[in-house]
Design brief:
By secondary structure, this protein is an alpha/beta fold. It has 14 helices and 13 strands.
Length: about 400
């Protein structure tokens, strides 16, 4: 006999259900901005975790924290239990058991018109519930869910079987759209909508700098962001420009290794590790710097950059960008126009363009102005959210009180 499922008595008024495994990650500020930016659809947030609530507040949005494991099935025995139960449908990431009953009961009492799931894993988890309740579902892919996760055959099998069941698919990079088309998804169902940047918040301060050159990097301190290559390239720069500085904003599991690398290269007086900070401080650090660097790389596990949010923020602030030919970065940075792109793991090439920009203020200004204009024209957050909302509205199931754009 199944367990009795309890849900809140008050049914929130919403027509869009936004699903994400976690709300409030420092590296996923785009999700917070998106939730606050919808104009025509009233979102209801369904998540397993909510962190950094003081910074990423959503007080005016109805939200439900699911009382289940956000990484369901990671335990070996539970993982095989889920796989056996999911075998008939071929979706080994689907919600099952008490969680599935809970979500179905919760959403069935609401008059939802569409569901938006961030990352492929969440989309697979919610797909059977959405189909049972006949709620159109839009899968929004970002990075690892179309790169390193594909090395997991259970995820890959599940995703390939599910692609035709999604009412629409949203990707953030042209390389991801190419993958979808190669796997027989009709082009009209795939929508390239980068995360974007709030260009009114991230604005240039053309009179910001004093003496010296400051490079800045804003990212998670993980393998894919290539901080070790940025630090090694910076070591070459300091030999030629002794008063150069490098500011590293962000945190992660590789911080200790990166600090040790800086010490071994005698850079601790020139390199500052800041840690995680809120968006206001990110903006302040960007405006206090001259050049943005990010040496993203395809990892050994197969991870590829989706959309570099901090790259967009820096460009919106009028900084020239130095980065790599990695995933969606190639959609953002126009080589020789808004910055420089070098090959992955090419430390010498990165050091060369770092020195070129450090020594040429006119070129920095030219790239910075072009980058700012491009962010406003093509990557502004409000425009990207409007595009996403248009996709969601087209997928909405009809109701007597439907809002139209």
């Amino acid at each position: 006999m199944s367990k009795r499922v309890k849900v809140d008595k008050d049914v929130p008024k919403a027509d869009l259900c936004v699903v994400a495994h976690c709300i409030g990650h420092w590296s996923e500020v785009w999700l917070w901005r998106q939730l606050l930016g919808f104009r025509y659809l009233k979102p209801y947030v369904l998540t397993w975790k909510y962190v950094n609530q003081e910074t990423f507040g959503l007080e005016n949005l109805p939200m439900r924290l699911l009382p289940f494991d956000s990484l369901a099935g990671e335990d070996r025995l539970l993982r095989w239990f889920r796989r056996v139960r999911s075998l008939p449908a071929g979706n080994f990431y689907a919600s099952v058991g008490a969680e599935r009953r809970f979500i179905k009961k919760l959403l069935s009492e609401m008059k939802l018109r569409v569901m938006l799931c961030h990352f492929g894993h969440a989309a697979l988890r919610m797909l059977p519930v959405a189909m049972e309740l006949e709620i159109p579902i839009v899968a929004h892919f970002h990075g690892l869910d179309l790169s390193s996760s594909l090395n997991n055959r259970w995820y890959r099998w599940s995703l390939l079987r599910a692609l035709d069941s999604f009412n629409a698919i949203v990707v953030v990079g042209s390389h991801q759209k190419k993958w979808m088309l190669q796997h027989n998804v009709a082009e009209h169902r795939v929508h390239l909508i980068p995360c974007g940047v709030p260009t009114e918040f991230f604005r240039p301060d053309w009179c910001r700098r004093g003496e010296g050159i400051q490079f800045v990097s804003v990212s998670r301190l993980v393998e894919g962001k290539g901080l070790e290559y940025s630090i090694q390239a910076f070591a070459h720069v300091v030999r030629q420009i002794p008063n150069a500085r490098l500011l590293i904003v962000g945190d992660g599991p590789l911080r200790g290794e990166l600090e040790e690398l800086a010490r071994s290269l005698w850079l601790m007086a020139s390199v500052t590790f800041v840690g995680d900070v809120n968006p206001e401080k990110v903006r302040a650090y960007l405006l206090g710097s001259d050049i943005f660097i990010q040496h993203s790389v395809n990892t050994r596990a197969g991870w590829v950059e989706g959309f570099g949010v901090s790259i967009a923020e820096a460009a919106a602030c009028g900084l020239p960008i130095i980065s790599t030919r990695c995933g969606g970065i190639q959609d953002q940075v126009v080589n020789g126009t808004t910055g420089f792109l070098v090959e992955q793991r090419d430390v010498d090439a990165m050091a060369d363009v770092m020195m070129e920009l450090a020594r040429d203020p006119a070129l920095r200004a030219k790239f910075g102005q072009a980058g700012r204009e491009r962010m406003v024209r093509e990557f502004d957050t409000a425009k990207q959210i409007a595009k996403l909302e248009a996709v969601l509205l087209r997928c909405c199931r009809r109701t007597s009180s439907s809002n139209q754009i």
